[in-house]
């Protein structure tokens, strides 16, 4: 704490670090409700900061109801513990969610997914029964025959070179993108890639552009780093680029986190024509585009447009290509591609985080991904997903709920009538063994209260029909009231 505080360049943010430090100690139970907090002078000494810095931190604690003041006695810990922490300054209409300390560590999506239910519609993941499991188990033995010392070997922090070489060839073949092995880093899933990027690029109060709605776990990561969200609406036609430009000009965001292909949760795809323009905007306004492409190959009919990375010549796109959602979720392989300085910083962050993704996983993935069996697997998956989507749409046809039929991916993004309280519906559904993702957690403004994400990829066909019927029946109770 001493070092980080005393070496921080942005002295005006020191009070946020002091604030975070105090909140963390409260949450650990070191400072309990109604305990007296250290005097400003003492804490300033301990943290080696100016007294005014601690004073501002205490003022913020008071404003966020984490502390209260007793006349002439000092500051005391409040008994209540609100989850969101709002800063007094810098607020404007578009940056609604401000600094949230590390104490607010949260993964709302995983909280819902961990509840065991019979009809699991909150997991945007392939049904494990659709994976070629027998082939995979035979494949494991073969890979160990090729690399007998596999279990006894570390991967480099950057990732297995043989895998990176293969992925370079893959990117040329599929996307005509020329990369070298140095432009690539292997992470343990896309989730880790988002986390590493946040560690490097986001400081408290940095403005970042995020789609509205977006992948909720990414929001949780950014929120935990103290980012200010500048929402960009995503529609079936992509973004309003004039608005994106206005936001970039006004807020000078560090980055724009986007998921432009079979977007999670909506399923929308940003059209090819906008992709080139977005890269031009990123270059002009020096805003890094984080292109999260977790399910590129899960199209139903037509392959999607080429990634934005295709248009990047100046190094303003960081491309995340996770393969864990539909190839072998258990292996958790994601490739991060970008300019040399970005990859270099990410390798450092990766080495600090875990020193490299397990080599066993990388080799398993490489040999499986290369195999002709893989292509057959993808074809079968697309057909299975198409059938599942049709089943859900058929069942929902009579509800009057709204959605735009996605051309790929795992989800339907449904708008329910206003009179259905989605939070209450989720509670009722969980009680009756059905889960879904409430739209609110995917919204950086936390307002999309009549939307839900329904994933049709995880549950088998028969179950899917029964589960959707059960959901409709539960929702129907509100209609009758
Ligand atoms: C858009 C998006 N990015 C990243 C992830 C995380 O992917 P992984 O399983 O590779 O960590 C997900 C998972 O749902 C996702 O939907």
Automatic annotation (TrEMBL):
Keywords: Aminotransferase, DNA-binding, Pyridoxal phosphate, Transcription, Transcription regulation, Transferase
Residues covered by the HTH gntR-type domain: 12-80
Domain of life: Bacteria
Stored Gene3D superfamilies: Aspartate Aminotransferase, domain 1, Type I PLP-dependent aspartate aminotransferase-like (Major domain), Winged helix-like DNA-binding domain superfamily/Winged helix DNA-binding domain
A Pfam family that the UniProt record links to this protein: Aminotran_1_2
A molecular-function term among this protein's GO annotations: DNA binding
Cofactor: pyridoxal 5'-phosphate
Family stated for the protein in its record: In the C-terminal section; belongs to the class-I pyridoxal-phosphate-dependent aminotransferase family.
Protein name as catalogued: DNA-binding transcriptional MocR family regulator
């Amino acid at each position: 704490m001493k070092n980080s505080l005393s070496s921080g360049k942005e002295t005006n943010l020191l009070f946020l670090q002091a604030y975070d430090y105090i909140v963390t100690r409260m949450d650990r139970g070191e400072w309990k409700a109604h305990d007296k907090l250290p005097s400003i002078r003492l804490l300033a000494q301990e943290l080696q900061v100016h007294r005014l810095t601690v004073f501002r931190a205490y003022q913020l604690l008071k404003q966020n109801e984490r502390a209260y003041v007793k006349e002439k006695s000092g500051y005391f810990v409040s008994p209540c513990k609100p989850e969101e922490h709002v800063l007094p300054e810098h607020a404007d209409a578009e940056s609604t969610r401000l600094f949230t300390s590390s104490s607010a560590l949260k993964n709302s999506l995983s909280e819902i997914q961990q509840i065991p239910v019979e009809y699991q519609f909150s997991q945007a993941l392939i049904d494990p029964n659709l994976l070629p499991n027998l082939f995979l188990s035979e494949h494991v033995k073969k890979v160990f025959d090729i690399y007998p010392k596999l279990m006894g070997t570390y991967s480099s922090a950057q990732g297995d070179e043989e895998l990176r070489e293969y992925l370079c060839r893959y990117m040329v073949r599929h996307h005509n993108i020329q990369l070298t092995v140095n432009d690539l880093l292997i992470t343990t899933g896309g989730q880790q890639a988002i986390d590493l990027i946040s560690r490097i690029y986001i400081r408290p109060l940095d403005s970042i552009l995020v789609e509205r709605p977006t992948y909720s776990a990414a929001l949780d990561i950014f929120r935990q780093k103290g980012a200010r969200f500048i929402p960009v609406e995503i529609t079936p036609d992509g973004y309003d680029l004039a608005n994106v430009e206005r936001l970039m000009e006004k807020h000078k965001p560090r980055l724009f986190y986007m998921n432009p292909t079979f977007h999670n949760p909506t399923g929308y795809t940003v059209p090819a024509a906008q992709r080139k323009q977005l890269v031009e905007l990123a270059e002009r306004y020096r805003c890094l585009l984080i292109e999260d492409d977790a399910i590129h190959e899960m199209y139903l009919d037509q392959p999607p447009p080429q990634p934005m990375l295709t248009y990047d010549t100046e190094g303003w796109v960081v491309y995340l290509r996770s393969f864990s959602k539909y190839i072998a979720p258990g292996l958790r392989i994601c490739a991060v591609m970008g300019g040399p300085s970005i990859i270099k910083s990410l390798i450092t962050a990766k080495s600090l985080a875990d020193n490299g993704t397990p080599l066993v996983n990388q080799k398993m993935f490489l040999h499986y991904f290369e195999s002709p069996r893989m292509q057959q697997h993808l074809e079968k998956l697309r057909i299975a997903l198409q059938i599942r989507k049709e089943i859900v749409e058929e069942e929902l046809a009579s509800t009057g709920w709204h959605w735009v039929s996605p051309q790929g991916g795992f989800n339907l993004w449904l708008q329910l009538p206003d009179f259905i309280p989605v939070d209450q519906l989720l509670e009722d559904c969980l009680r009756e063994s059905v889960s879904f993702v409430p739209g609110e957690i995917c919204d950086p403004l936390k307002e999309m209260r009549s939307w839900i994400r329904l994933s049709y990829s995880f549950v088998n066909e028969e179950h899917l029909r029964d589960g959707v019927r059960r959901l409709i029946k539960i929702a129907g109770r509100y209609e009758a009231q």
